[in-house]
Write a sequence for this structure.
């Protein structure tokens, strides 16, 4: 489908918010993504859906060749949208949900957290790490969560990095939880190793890696 640019703004340090007006409401599950491309160009990139509906919101970092074109769009410009896609979604049931985000990896996990904040279908904890608070996307929205417990870490401002042991201290019953990881590939690999080392079954670890460039 073809969408029109409704708004583009700087949302955090080197992070942009893009709102696209769609011809019809996009039905999706929190955590899924769409493929975006420019008319007449086969090149496309995947972006997590932060908010769906007839006005879809995505966030992206200002890095990479494709993104260099994204930051130049104007209101009314056309962007092609395909999707939604992806199986990185909340499972059925009421097991506790633990969300671990690194950098721009917050985008699909924010969508999940917002869903859990609204429905209270399961207890949830969100761990969000970035270099600085100024580089944290969706910080205002996250700060308004009341049902979802939030832990923020700005690693270049003196905060300790999140690791599996610190998560275990906050969530002692981690072995019965579903853990969702999203961030750089090295972060995903480290957390998988740490979590399985602490006895978390691999089938309870869900992940999607973001390299931060596109």
């Amino acid at each position: 489908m073809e969408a029109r640019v409704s708004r583009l703004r700087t949302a955090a340090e080197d992070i942009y918010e893009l709102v696209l007006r769609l011809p019809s409401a996009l039905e999706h599950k929190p955590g899924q993504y769409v493929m975006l491309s420019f008319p007449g160009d086969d090149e496309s990139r995947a972006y997590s859906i932060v908010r769906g509906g007839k006005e879809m919101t995505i966030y992206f970092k200002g890095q990479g060749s494709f993104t260099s074109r994204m930051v130049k769009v104007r209101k009314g410009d056309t962007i092609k949208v395909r999707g939604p896609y992806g199986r990185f979604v909340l499972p059925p049931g009421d097991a506790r949900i633990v969300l671990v985000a690194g950098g721009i990896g917050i985008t699909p996990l924010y969508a999940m957290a917002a869903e859990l904040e609204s429905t209270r279908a399961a207890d949830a904890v969100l761990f969000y790490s970035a270099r600085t608070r100024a580089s944290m996307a969706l910080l205002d929205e996250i700060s308004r969560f009341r049902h979802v417990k939030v832990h923020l870490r700005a690693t270049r401002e003196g905060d300790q990095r999140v690791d599996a042991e610190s998560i275990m201290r906050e969530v002692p019953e981690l072995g019965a939880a579903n853990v969702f990881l999203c961030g750089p590939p090295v972060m995903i690999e480290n957390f998988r190793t740490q979590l399985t080392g602490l006895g978390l079954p691999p089938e309870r670890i869900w992940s999607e890696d973001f390299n931060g460039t596109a």
The mean pLDDT is 94. The longest strand covers residues 15-26. Residues 13 and 177 are 32 Å apart (CA to CA). Residues 97-209 form a domain with the Rossmann fold fold (CATH 3.40.50.80).
